[in-house]
Amino acid sequence: MIIDVQLASLFTAVALVVIGIFAAVFLDNLIKKVIGLAFIGDGVNLFLISMGYKAGGIVYIQLPGMAADWFAQNSAYPLPFALVLTSIVIGASTMAVMLGIIIVLYKKRGSISASKILGE
Amino acid sequence: MNLYDLIVKKIKDIQGVGDESPVTNISTSSMLTAEITLISSILVALIMLRLVNKVLMIVAVLVVLFTVLTAMPLMPKFKKEQNDSLASMMFYIVIALAIVITLFYWGNLNV
Amino acid sequence: MNFLIALMVIVPILCALFLNLLHKKDRTIKVVTVLLALTLPALPLLANYGLHYFGGYVPLVENPTLANNLPPLITDTALNTFHPAITYSFQSAQQLFVFIFGLVALLAIFVSVFETRRPSGVYAYMMFMGVAAVTAVILTDDIFNLYVFFEIAALATVGIVLVSNVKGNYETALKYMIIGSIVAPLLLLGIALLLGVTGNVNITDIIYSIKNGLVDPQNPVILMACALIVFGWLYGSGLPPFHTIKSAIYSKALPSGAALMQAFSVFIFVAMGIIILRIFSYLPFSQWVILGVSLMAMILGITMAILQTDLKRMIGFLAVGELGYIGIGLGLSTAYGITAGLFQAVNEAMITAILFLGFGVVLYQTGISDTRKLGGMMVKTPLVAFLVLLGGFAMAGVPLLNAFQSKLMLIQGSIKAGLPELGVIMILLSIVTFMTFMKAFHAVYLRPMPDELVIKHEKIPKATIIAMLVLLGVCLIFGLFPQVATSYLQPLATSLAGGIL
């Protein structure tokens, strides 16, 4: 049985987002919280890139000899690919800043429990 | 005990024992102002329901007025809810997300 | 000179990168920072109206040589008119927004280099980066580009808070980032849904697709996208339920940083509000959501402001509450109401900056922001007290100053739109705003000075007074001649309202 790739990746994306939101809301360890947040971002990125999938499509590079007409009809959609790269870079930098702050807070307060250092 | 003392006592009760900040004249009057502002703006905003249904508006205003009067000092509770802890912020954010999505999704499809 | 449109975003980024290299050279940093910041308000004045295409082509319909060799599959369909590039649109309204934003940024940066004892390139870097990001959010016509710069603005905000050295700044910054990391992907999800339905990220093209029946406007996926984008908008501008974290963020920054950050919020609010109105105004529901959220922001923001004892937190909540006025203008969806809302946005960005800078002088002198421990500063700094008082008058809407004009327009607009209740609430909350301001003013300036209050710095930096005078001058000009501002905003408002006066 062949599972549709796009459908499978959409389900994975939903699972990632749900797990991520659960972790971000309910886990107390700040590092685990950040991992949960990374899950949300990854899930959305996966969703975004699966928008560009085309069953039986080709890579969007027009090689010599390909007719423009045929290429336009058969290539996959390139835009989500470009967008997702940018979004991954932003996600990575946000993550780095968050982890950096957690290191500073751990040095100052000696704990990485959200309820202890991020309470009132 | 006159009315002012009653109000101060009420605020002290709600603040609890942990908060050592004194209940001053200024803080009492701010609390009263906030309370009255909150109630009156909600009631005035409810009048906009007349665009949906006039009877509904009257019922809603009366019900809210009654609930508010019985639950009277509202503002200390509101202030306690809108605190700076991450957990309570997160709670309201998830609630808000649910409300926004529900309103847009079903509100538009079924109206 | 259309390339100036691109420079409005590129110049601040370059300035930021350049200043980051100058480390530990105090004098050079001061001079260079102020000189570079002068370009921020100057560029929008010099640029011509028009579109700028970043890294792509003009639409095929305007470029026959390129369209020549393409199959009819592309040239005969709507693809011919689409924008295959990141498009920046610069019209009269954007000109006013970028100019006022540049002015506030210039003055905030100007104050920051003179108020901090050791000006650091890093702080200036964060401020310039944020300015670039928000300018891009104002100009962009590309919804993914909007998301990218939205995130950069959030990171710059966090950076401004982290370098402030105020107690508790790391905790608040982390909270802001955790919340941001939940909301921003959801905003991106909304954008991805729009991309999935319309195949486009250019806003003009998305609207074309929806209006011309290329996609079904009542498609549930579009409704979901609208909900998620609205949610991102709430976070970006600090509307409820994000008002607590937003005001906390303001209170953990230096006064100059807070003055700049509130301008970030105001202009992100306006830019995204305009986009929501442009794409989704065909849903009658979107208007009511904008109105409801704005009402909540006003009521919760202002009632919370009056209860605060921390000076910066108080103004932070007031800043959030005042956003509601702008939202009511946008939510009225009439040309007059939207003009009033946009005008209020311009005014509010300046007035809140005055208050942050003015009360910032007290923090600079004493290092205390708790109103219960302050007092008697009138004797020490009568001029600053007078300027702050004028700022408070402006915020409350006293005649001759700008917010009087915009709030009057908002009230008239709400009556014309058949919702006089909104006018009543706005008047009521304006009074409470003024009372909150007077409470802070009394606590800081009027009542006798407590014995234990120590003044660390007697001298006030002249830069702060100059900055406040400039902003008050612009407020007075807009108050006396509101047409100066509204004539810039009217074309945009008319097109947003779709012919409803």
> Span from first to last CA of chain A?
54 Å
Count of domains of chain B:
1
Percent range for helical residues of chain A?
over 70%
Beta percentage of chain A is under 5%
Summarize the biggest pleated sheet of chain B.
none
Major sheet size, sense and barrel closure of chain A:
none
Order of helices and strands of chain B: HHHHH
Note down, in words, how this protein is organized:
- The complex is a heterotrimer of chains A (120), B (111) and C (501).
- With 120 residues, chain A is mainly α.
- Chain A has one domain (5-57, 66-117): Helix Hairpins.
- Chain A contains 5 helices and no strands.
- Chain A has helices at 5-26, 30-50, 68-74, 79-109, 114-117.
- Chain A is elongated, with a radius of gyration of 20 Å.
- Chain B has one domain.
- Chain B is 76% helix and 0% strand.
- Chain B is built from 5 helices and no strands.
- Chain B has helices spanning 3-15, 25-46, 54-70, 75-81, 86-110.
- The longest helix of chain B has 25 residues, at 86-110.
- The mean pLDDT of chain B is 81.
- Chain C has one domain (3-49, 91-497).
- Chain C is built from 22 helices and 2 strands.
- In chain C, strands 1-2 form a two-stranded antiparallel sheet.
- In chain C, helix 13 (255-280) packs antiparallel against helix 16 (335-366), helix 14 (284-307) runs antiparallel to helix 15 and helix 18 (382-396) runs parallel beside helix 21.
- The longest helix of chain C is centred in the last third of the chain and has 32 residues, at 335-366.
- Classes of the chains: A mainly alpha (120), B mainly alpha (111), C mainly alpha (501).
- Chains in contact: A-B, A-C, B-C.
- The interface between A and C is large, with 38 and 34 residues.
